[in-house]
Design brief:
single chain, mainly alpha, ABC transporter transmembrane region fold, 6 helices
Length: 140
């Protein structure tokens, strides 16, 4: 569906102004470059968070499966500390993930807003030169 949407959007955009379409498409290369650099790092950090969450879920599963033994032996404090150490590890990896996510999203939003500015500037230039019939074409 997304490929069909992209193709139809380009077909409509080329029908109204091929120059405007090419100028605004220049940001796609930058976005692809940013994603190709940051996504592998983001996936590695996300895997660390998932492994820590798996470890915490495993500890919780072990506790709940043998709850009678845990309660009868009085092992609640030790097992609680073990569980929360796994949760804290996941939290630490999650906080490191937030920095990586910011490093990925900041250039993307910059390129998006700069493309908006470029599109309006170039669209007004095309409108003043008579290459675009109406200003509503630029806004679309």
């Amino acid at each position: 569906m997304s490929i069909a949407l992209t193709i139809s959007a380009y077909a409509i955009a080329f029908r109204y102004s091929w120059a405007m379409t090419l100028v605004t498409s220049s940001a796609i290369l930058f976005v692809l470059l940013v994603y190709s650099i940051t996504t592998p790092i983001l996936i590695k950090k996300l895997q660390k968070v998932e492994k820590a969450n798996e470890k915490a879920a495993s500890v919780a599963g072990e506790i709940f499966s043998s709850i009678r033994a845990v309660l009868s032996l009085g092992a609640q404090p030790a097992l609680t500390n073990k569980y929360f150490s796994c949760v804290d590890e996941a939290k630490i990896h999650g906080l490191a993930l937030s920095l990586q996510m910011a490093l990925q999203l900041a250039p993307i939003f910059f390129s998006m807003y700069s493309t908006f500015a470029l599109a309006f500037w170039f669209g007004l230039k095309l409108f003043r030169e008579g290459h675009v019939a109406s200003i509503s074409t630029v806004i679309m």
